[in-house]
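Subject: sequence -> structure tokens, single chain

Hey, anyone have a minute? Need the predicted structure for the following. Not urgent.
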Amino acid sequence: MIRDKIKRITDEARRDGDFRGRLLGTRGAADPVSAFCEVCRERGIDITAGELFAYGMDMNDSKLRATNGGGSFEIDGWDDVRENILDELARL
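Reply:
Had a minute. Here:
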């Protein structure tokens, strides 16, 4: 499940500064999402760009289902799962 993979990525990156640095370094890649997934796969965490996008889409869609009949409040932004992970790791 994607949530388990994301938890593993963040847990391992908290413990391993090299892994964390490699993940953060993907921000400067020509294709940052593919680079992020490749670093994770090298670590033994099989994650795909499609999984990241689908999970992010589900999180964003749930904002609009937060009330009966749809979102009744303005959304201040759309979450990018990969960027959320990297932002969290950058604060460590």
